[in-house]
Write a structure and sequence with these properties.
Structural class: mainly alpha
Number of helices: 5
Oligomer: single chain
Helix content: over 70%
Strand content: under 5%
Length: 173
């Protein structure tokens, strides 16, 4: 319902502009009234009918003729978008050529890396197996705990000595 109302409004608006264009074209005919040559008048009438029919069939062109500023803005925008598209295409073509030129180098680099990896795994297989770390038994654990306890006691004694030194030391003035 709303779409048909918009379509009718556009059609009546287009018709009004089309009539206005025809009236301005009619001004050309009035300037030719002084000429009595029937051939020129007939030619202009046929030209008017052709232009009127073509503009009636192409309302977008009629709108562009009536609104030249908006047409210029649209043309510049379209030109900018087309140039951007060409730049993007050129960039992708350039990237493709660079890839094709680097492909042999990348392939050789990959193959050399593959060879070195295979040599490295072979050399690792040739090495004798690493000896495992000695197992820590309960005796070693007890020894470590006793040592940590001794260190804690020594730390406590040193802290007490430091406090007593700081308490008896005269403060500098």
């Amino acid at each position: 319902m709303a779409g048909s109302a918009i379509g009718m409004a556009m059609a009546s608006d287009t018709g009004w502009w089309l009539d206005r264009f025809t009236e301005s074209a009619g001004g050309i005919f009035q300037s030719v009234e002084g000429i009595t040559d029937a051939v020129i008048i007939s030619l202009l009438e046929r030209l008017q009918d052709a232009v009127y029919g073509w503009l009636a069939a192409h309302p977008l062109v009629l709108w562009m003729v009536i609104h030249p500023v908006w047409s210029l803005v649209g043309a510049l925008l379209a030109l900018w978008l087309i140039l951007g598209l060409f730049q993007a295409i050129a960039h992708y073509i350039q990237q493709g050529w660079l890839f094709l030129l680097r492909a042999p180098y990348l392939l050789i680099r990959w193959l050399v890396g593959l060879v070195f990896i295979s040599l490295q795994t072979r050399s690792l297989r040739a090495l004798p197996p690493a000896q495992s770390a000695p197992e820590i038994g309960p005796d070693r654990l007890v020894e470590i705990l006793n040592r940590l306890e001794d260190i804690r006691q020594e730390e406590t004694e040193l802290m007490q000595e430091m406090r007593s030194l700081l308490a008896h030391e005269p403060t500098p003035k």
